[in-house]
Write a structure and sequence with these properties.
The chain has about 260 residues and is mostly helical. Helix content is about 75%, strand content about 0%.
Length: about 260
Amino acid sequence: MPDDSQPLRQTPTVAHLVNALRFLTILPVPDSDRAPEPDWLTRAMAFFPVVGGGIGAISATMLLLGSALFSPGLAALLAVAASIVVTGALHEDGLADTFDSFGGGWTVARRLEIMKDSRIGTYGALALGLDVALRAAALAQLPLWAGVAALVAGHAAARAAPAFVMKTMSYTGDTSAMRVSYAEAPLRADELRFILIAVAVAAVPLLLVSFAALAVGLAFGAVLAAALAAWARRLIGGYTGDVLGATEQMFEVGFLLGVAAVLGS
């Protein structure tokens, strides 16, 4: 009989998946018997869309339960709240910090200083409020099963967006101040292929509902995420962890707005 007090032995692939789950959610995961490598976050990022699909499934389950009890608007808000709870508001925190930084800082140094401040300001509060409101409002417009499919696809695709930001931009923050160990490392071609495959699999249910809704959702999400990344490049010269979180949120908002533009009632 194995000793339950010992960490589970994990292959590198399983370890990367567990790291992705640990980083993106508050869900309990087994300890690893492997010491984290300096590039562990980059390696785990290949599995972000897989975990994102799971987060979307949890949010979709809440949408189904809420729809059986409440109005579409309240059910949509509960679904959004479920994703926030299961992720510990990780991405929302990045969104608020990014908007406070870009809205309130006049120099690169000052913007990075504001970004590290845990307090929330006017720009961050407005960004958070609009973010949640837009996601919930767009979701409430969708037929129930289209909403379920959109949540799974959107959460998976949104977790892929930071990978492409990391691929095209350099880290500009202070790595010594990060709460997790980090070393900048490029994503490999096979990891990028796996990311795209994971997003494609998660998108199949929505594809069966409407190809146009999926295409427009991906386009809207990509445009908003790219706009945020371009803003970051101009104002701070690259990305930070908060910028990656904001990129994910912008993709989510754009994706749901795009799907609602096609399928919204």
